[in-house]
Request: fold
Amino acid sequence: MEIVFDDVSYKDFKNLSFTLKNRTINGINLDNSQDIFTLLKGKEKFLGSIYFGNVLLSDNTKDEYRNLISFVPKNFSNQVFLDTVEEYIAFTIKYRKIKVKNQRKTVISLLEHIGLNESYLDKNIEELSSSEQKLIQVIVSLLSRPKVVVLEEVFSNFDLKFEKKLMRFFNYLIDNENITIVLISRDAEMLYKNSKHVVLIKNGEVLSEGESVDVYKNVELLLDNDFEVPEIVLFTYKVQKQKNINLSYHKDIRDLIKDVYKNV
Amino acid sequence: MEILSIKNLTYKNILKNLNMSIEENKFITVSGPNMCGKTTLIKILSSIFASECVYLEGKNISDINKNNFHKKVSYVIPSIDENFIFPTVEKELFFILDNLGLKQSVKMSRYKEILKLFDLDNYTQSNPNNLDEKTKVKLLLAMAVITKPKVLLLDDICYIMNKVETDEILKKLKALQKVYKMTIVMTTSNLRDAISSDYLYILNKGEIALEGVPLKVLKKDNELNKLGLKVPFMIELCVKLEDYDIVNKVVLDMDLLVSALWK
Reply:
């Protein structure tokens, strides 16, 4: 499902207009993720319009909206000191009044798709690594069968194996469940690599929006605005600028190396 | 001189027969894939988890009085330091200073010194829980360093920061280490943070998989990739270009590499 921001102003945000594309991994690159998270949650008043598919977010539609969007915040919290993963999931279902058919079967199926297994249900949630806890958070966010999942700094301390695991899962969700993914992060490297459509926000305004390669290869705009440039992009830019040699903008370093080899 | 040593440390199923000897005034980085035991190691070194295999200045830490231990060893573990107790940054820092039994004049000068070191001057009256991530980490560091410890233990403090912010924090730590003569042991999930340290350990499944001077370890791109670790861009690029005989050494500066490639 597509989300459209039309001239939205809230706190430091000034006239934000952008689109989060349907069935795509979208990225929002900005310094402080908190306010955009709050806006997407639809809990606070703001100026302008947010459309969710064809529906305008308003007091009348916000309950329906909340059922269709789900959130994975950057910090894992186990405030009621639950013991096992199974208890944690059961508590969340009860607390958020989510209706889940065949609860155990659904959870096990999600665990398997994300690359964990049934044995995780009995594990102590506090003893899981931070990356495993993050995957459990992702699973919990899907139990309400949302159309959009918004994740804040989800890859922040993942190694490559966990990153691949989660990326595979996102692609599975997009292909099989028609889910739209929104990654909110300050990490330009990660967003360049993993998101297809990206929105850059600086000082409360949209600086750029589009396919991630097109957005990040506009290096001068990024540098002028103190934006982090992915290193692989910066290298390609410098080669062009300093040596007048046009390498392609790659996402994978192996492709860049082949390109360098052909051009030296 | 050795300040900290770990002898045959085994902890639950997480760390296995680990041995490390850490020299005074060095900056040591420990990295490794998720679940390799990084955080557990820091929690053992900071005596949050009990162990009889760790020695500080030759003494087993389980025999050192808690107060004396915490005068010498400070730690920052952002994952468990989430909540601050006091309503302002100033109160948070003075709570620690008040417990050090220092003269009023020394307290004030140290307070000011620390504020300056971590650029916290404008935040003294702010609520610590409302600070942005980078400033929160700076405050946690200030709280750890204000006691002038001999050993500073840091667990993945930069994980939520971007490159520029991480470089800024690392630069500060390096400067601080020289001025205060501290030994720093820092874990990180990003190998880029390890480049400028004195020594690097890579853990895998609770054991040391690789160790040595960072540049030498980081050049082992295939081994690191197999462990699920991302080699820093400039090092990976140079190592792979070396395979093609296009360059003959690792150049960390991007402009210099571009010049070397197309003379």
